[in-house]
Amino acid sequence: MGLLSSDPVKETQKEVKKDHKAEEKELKEHAKEVKKAEKEEEKREKKEEKAEKKQEKIEKKEEKLAEKHRDAAHDANEHSLERERAAEGAEAHKAGFNQAAAGHHGAATGPTV
Asked: What are phi and psi of 46, to 5 degrees?
């Protein structure tokens, strides 16, 4: 009985075991790859959420700055109008004073009889 005379059932069982083992190994590798891909997807999602939150913060800051800018422009406009009114009032007062002074001087230097 030589080396080539082996039991065909045992040979088939060996082959089946070998194939089964190879398939299990392949399944484990695929499971690892899937797990790795899931982790990478989670990381991407977290980064995306973080970026969205950052963008929201930036937008809120921009809104606040725009509001402050509008308020400052409004205040500057109000101050400018107040200065104009004050200058007009001062000019009117000065004109009235000059008119009164001219009238007073005119009466003193008027025609003598």
From this structure: -65, -45
How do residues 45-69 score in pLDDT, each as one tens digit? Answer: 999 999 999 999 999 999 999 999 9
Please provide residue 111's backbone torsions phi and psi, each rounded to the nearest 5 degrees. -65, 140
Distance between CA atoms of residues 83 and 73, nearest Å = 15
Q: Which residues of 26-59 are buried (b: 16+ CB within 10 A; e: fewer)?
A: eeeeeeeeeeeeeeeeeeeeeeeeeeeeeeeeee
Distance CA 79, CA 26 (A): 79
Domain ranges for the chain: 21-106
